[in-house]
Amino acid sequence: MNRVYNFSAGPSMLPLPVLEKAAAELVNYGDAGMSVMEMSHRSPAYEAIIQKAEADLRKLMNVPDNYKILFLQGGASTQFASVPLNLMTTGKADYVLSGQFSTKAYKEAQKYGDAKAIASSKEENFTVIPKITPDMVRPDADYVHVCYNNTIYGTKYPEIPDTGDVPLVADMSSCIISEPVDVSKFAVIYAGAQKNMAPAGLTVVIVREDLLGKARPETPSMLDWQLMAENDSMYNTPPCYAIYMAGLVYEWILSIGGLTTMEKMNKEKAALLYDYLDSQDYYIAPVKKEFRSMMNVTFVTGNEDLDKKFPKEAEKAGLMNLKGHRSVGGMRASIYNAMPKEGIEALIAFMKDFAEKNPK
Fold it and tell me: Which of 155, 215, 219, 332 is the 20 to 30 Å CA partner of 340?
């Protein structure tokens, strides 16, 4: 099997055992006589699939009983509008700008009310996470929004921010199910699935029940969380196959020991790469240590020509999608749950070889 190491920021690689099980079930799922892709979402067979996926995610993340789990479409970017439409009841919301996606969410919210940026690390080129304290939050704000892990810049919140009594909303697209997190500290968690959970097309929203039923009158039905919750994520045809794949991922993580095991594996992989970066001076890791992401590792050589050459040469070695985001440049290794330790070792070996063959 000639599989490469795929360092794409998303859609990203999926666990090999999950892909192999999906392949075995592709043509005929169980005794259904058909593929999951062919099933009616109203059929008993598919209802069992989506119900198990929800139950396994609830177990995996230890989601409290007073939270709803929604399987939706539209990507996390659609939730940039869904959040204010469902939560902005007084017309005020506070945003922390720590990268491109939190900024996009902030700009989207400005269409619906008084969205205020209470902190930003733009002046530091988003290499740090802005510090916020409860006194910075407007007490009459409906919520505070953060992006918990910044895919493009390679930063992550080192701790859950304290927003006092104001509900905390987090975009966790690029770090969900990578480590244990106290869901009860958040009012809403949402995440596009294409980085750690499933193929593109699925978005997961975890929302505290007392926040449902407050959607603005102009909220489109497809963006109304209460409507989706009342219909068990099947108000319309959901992204059936992506939900099935997510369910296989949840099942796989539970089988290896859950998020405690996953966190241990991810910390070990990230430490390997960061330790190498810190041990030499050919490559530069721009993110300050306390804010480094376990999922997205950014680095540069400091030479634009070498930065362009690196991803091209890496592809020849079977190390794919290492080019940094166009707004940042350099290189980015996205090392999500499915990336094996061997992939990190192969990357480091290539980095050493590249540095030796391409002196600055």
Answer: 155
